[in-house]
Each structure stands twice: as C-alpha cells, then as structure tokens.
Recover the amino acids of this structure.
C-alpha cells in the first residue's frame, strides 16, 4: 500500500515539475536611469515659474529604461500625435511613451508637488 501511495504522489507531482521555471529568480534591483526633469507652475501648455501653491514636476526617461517601459505597455495607440514614419506611441493614464527612429525611446510622466497626484509629463 505504501508503494502505491509513493508512486501516486510521484505521478501527481511530475506534471508540476515539468512546468517549473528553471530560470534564475527575479532580482528586483534598482537600475540607473537616464533622463531629465523640469519643475514648473501652471500647465504643460502654459508654464510659469513654480510657486508656493503651484509646483509640478515633469520627468522624461530615456534609453533602456524607456524601452523597457514602452515594451511593457503594449499595444501601440491607433490615434497618435504624429504620422511621421517610424513613430510609435503608447499611453496608460498619465504615462506616455514614444519611439522615434531619430531619438529612440522616451517616456513622460509627472506629479503635482503640492498634492502628490500623478499628472501628465508631456502632451502632443
């Protein structure tokens, strides 16, 4: 009886072992980021000097980090900011990423520094 129980346990475990992920465990480490930021007041379209009650920050992430973000945001937008050849665009709420053949990958996002709320970091 014990042999049957052991064989049954092995038979049930075998399919799970076949689907086990043999890759190295994911390492959630911070990586360097290439980018720029701007602190401003007003809106993206009509920026003013930041003030005590009106300060926002817009970030632009470039290069490898932007490519990884872009790849994770599929699919491409059907309605894009431009019809330029090779231009691709992806949007998720206040996160906006683009690919252009001449400038590569770029992602834009921002925060209202008075409220901490997410805001857009770029517009068309």
């Amino acid at each position: 009886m014990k042999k049957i129980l052991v064989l049954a346990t092995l038979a049930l475990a075998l399919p799970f072992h076949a689907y086990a992920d043999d890759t190295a465990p994911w390492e959630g480490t911070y990586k360097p980021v290439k980018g720029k930021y701007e602190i401003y007041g007003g809106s993206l379209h009509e920026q003013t000097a930041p003030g005590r009650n009106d300060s926002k920050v817009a970030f632009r992430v470039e290069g490898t980090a932007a490519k990884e973000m872009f790849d994770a945001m599929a699919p491409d937008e059907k309605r894009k900011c431009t019809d330029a050849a090779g231009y691709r665009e992806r949007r998720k709420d206040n996160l906006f990423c683009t690919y252009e053949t001449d400038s590569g990958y770029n992602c834009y996002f921002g925060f209202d520094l008075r409220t901490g709320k997410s805001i857009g970091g770029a517009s068309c």
